[in-house]
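PROTOCOL LOG
Step 1. Enter all chains and additional molecules of the complex.
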Amino acid sequence: MQILGLILLLLGGGALAALSERLHRNAPRWLALGVIAASTLYLLAIPVGTEEQAAWIPRFGISLILAMDGLSFAMVALTLFLGLIAIVSSWSEIDESPGFFQFNLLWTLAGVVGVFTALDLFLFFVFWEVMLVPMYFLIAIWGHEARAYAAMKFFLFTQISGLLMLFAILTLVYLHYDASGVITFAYADLLDAELDPGYAFLLMLGFFVAFVVKLPGVPFHTWLPDAHTQAPTAGSVILAGILLKTGAYGLLRFVVPLFPEAALEFRWPAMFLGAASVIYGGYLAFSQSDFKRLVAYSSISHMGFVLLGVFAWNTVAVQGAVVQMVAHGFSTAALFMMAGALQQRLHTREMGQMGGLWLKAPRMGAVALFFVIASLGMPGLGNFVGEFMVLIGAFQVDVPLTIAAAIGIIVAAVYALSLMQRSFQGEPNAAVETMPDFGFRELSVMILMMVALVWLGIYPETLLNLSAPVVSGLGVHP
Amino acid sequence: MTALDFQALAPHLTLTGGLMVVLLAVSFWRSHRTAFALTLLSLAAAFIALWPGLGAGPRAVTPLLMLDAYAAFFNGLFILIGAVTALLAHRYLEGRAGSQEEFHVLLLAATLGAMTLASAQHFAALLLGLEILSISLYAMVAYPEEDHPPLEAALKYLVLSGVGSTIMLFGMALIYHATGALGFAELAAFAATGDRADLWLSAGLVLFVIGIAFKLSLVPFHMWTPDVYQGAPAPVTAYLATVSKAAVFAVLLRFAVDAQLLDLSSGAQVSVAMLFAIIAVLSMVIGNVLALLQNSIKRLLAYSSIAHVGYLLIALLVLNALPGQPMAVETALVFLVGYLAMTLAAFAVVSELSSAADGERDQIEEYSGLFWRHPVLASVLTAALLSLAGIPLTAGFIAKFYLFAAGVDGELWGLLWAMVVGSAISIYYYLKIVFAMTVRGADAPAIPASFAGVATAAVLGVVVLAIGIYPTPLIGLASDIAQGLRLTP
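Step 2. Run joint prediction.
Step 3. Record the structure below.
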């Protein structure tokens, strides 16, 4: 029960963090940091390929099946890393009830780790929903001015699409039971379910909607700018860095393998939505005046590539989607952290009230430039590898859509550079007299993320080798 | 009546004995604390008596009552809820000017009525149990008699519940006219051989269903519910929303199984199954939509309970779709336990924030910042509301999951879609309360909660989560009981 142990470690650590607030105001922060460190060591001790199983609700054939293959390992490692970033970035931002804050943070992470490792559809759904509740509290309690609206919208979108998925899961299990006489929620068994094509298509849509809402793809993206903008920095880091990936992971792990024919039939619309997200997300990002909102819309654009790659469903494209997931996790988390740092210093997210900040805080400027460049897809950094591979793979499937998505990279350059110009370059804003630069705490985590992105850009094999056996095991086309 | 009959009746007899003791004690020596302690003792004794009662085996005592595991299951639940209500009411009534003792007598009587309903297998026992329960409840609702809202609520409840009973009684009379039978099993025998197309029978069944719908506050017979829930003292609302619903549903389900209600009507002029399906969809949709508009938590929970009983009817219709299979009964039992636990937990928190002396605290703005003022009560209410919304790892999720599974099994797609839509709507209003509790810097009226009340609420919150995390024991129990009923295909 090693993987379950990891989840319980995060849950237990969260509970302790909540209680430790009585001892000292800083205790929850250090404790949360310790829990993340311990979880990371623990994760490294779990061999890739571990699978564990225990009975849970035998009446419906529901078991606790958790597995750690290369893909899960990469996603869990990303989760813990960004969890660390989130804790560090909220260090001085969260002053009210730090104990309950760290509790919610660690419980969200526990839910996400569960989502990335569960191989029982019921268990997966439980984790899928459970990660929402603490995330809701993060936005609702520590969010910015319009948090009530944003938190509610976030919850409703994910919850309602989750209900569709639950309906699809149960129908899938029932159809499998009808055909085989065995009632089971195990992923491995349901992969073999023989379905009537009409049913399979509807069920596939149920899963697809739930995951694309989370991804988010156009036209289900409207919750994202609100939630990301209103969440506290740590919340945005977790949301953009990890929670969006659960949607991508779901498409990759569940939608296509469970319903291969239906997914193939749905390939063009799905890839179209992917390409549309790339361009429309980029277009909307360009028109924002709010630093954080711009980054939020850029996420829609970047995740469009993942949708495109997954539905192109050949090795190159799917591997590219995996790289894109990880690289986007780093680059966007860093940009959200930058937005949080700016808001803490300037008490605004409006770029109209920034300008020429490089002069006042050169370290922040340099860091921002690095991640802006990464975000627009500069060769040598992780995002480029991901987008490039997705485009190569998608080109073999559908040329017009690939060309459209490639244009999206130009759009990315436009909004990313305008972000840089409007905030850090240009005429210094007279209203901003001084601004403290990054200190050791912030700079060190930023450097960590830079190293990760450069590594991913120069030697993506580390990640590709990890995910290659999984991707081929999912039955992608060569 | 043999010795074994008395043994089977042990829980009922024990509770009746306890009722007498409390009544006499209250007449001679007025002390709230004594009445309260004796009430808890009587309930505990009745709970223990469930085991000797079960030892007598499934046993029909007179043609009226059937004492089997099914009855014992509900009796146990009703006794426990009675104890919770007593615990909540004790502190709630403390500051009141008038006397408090008689409340406990009424509570025991109402519980006895509910237990009679759960064991009824004859129209006479059904009516007897229903009236013992309802008449006690009228007085319980009106207990703070110097205040206007409880009196208004009690009057509304008296009149509309009375109308419901009358309609049901008339329905029974017509069914008797058509079939010559009053016992559930005899009705089943008629269903097998008699003339089911008889117009009187159809009319009787429809009237009976309407009477039941009044008692279960199903749309369109729900109008009394929000007013009564709001006006009644919070502990009584808790009791009303749980025991009186579950008891009526228990007897309805037994009637449906034993008398083959849905089968009885299959050749009739009106399909009872169709009637229930329409009522269920209306309740789910209208209950949830109207709950959106409420500012009072008690009214909001009233509408949400309307919707939940609507969901529960799916279990009844599964009985029709999958004849002879225990799935429907099992689903109903699991759903009811989940519903009772989360509803009681929610009302326990409302009750702990209110008191007879200072009045009800049920406006949503009065819950602002509860997380920072009283984290335990706020956590319990959050757990209860998330459970009502059907979030995983809570009892409410298991309950809805069961209904879903049973509904998919019975291929009741239309009802399931109504449930999906209803659940989707409901998330909004439950979260509205959760959000209010997280707001900071709200004005803080003092919280009158007592230690016993908070502990009760906390236990209920833990039960809600425990059922959600590990439902296997509950499922096993429900499955055994469902297998034990006489299901005939």
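Step 4. Note key features.
Chain A touches chain B at residues 56-60, 96-97, 125-126, 129-130, 132-133, 136-137, 140-141, 148, 151-152, 155-156, 159-160, 163-164, 166-167, 170-171, 174 (CB under 8 Å).
The beta strands of chain A are 50-57, 62-68.
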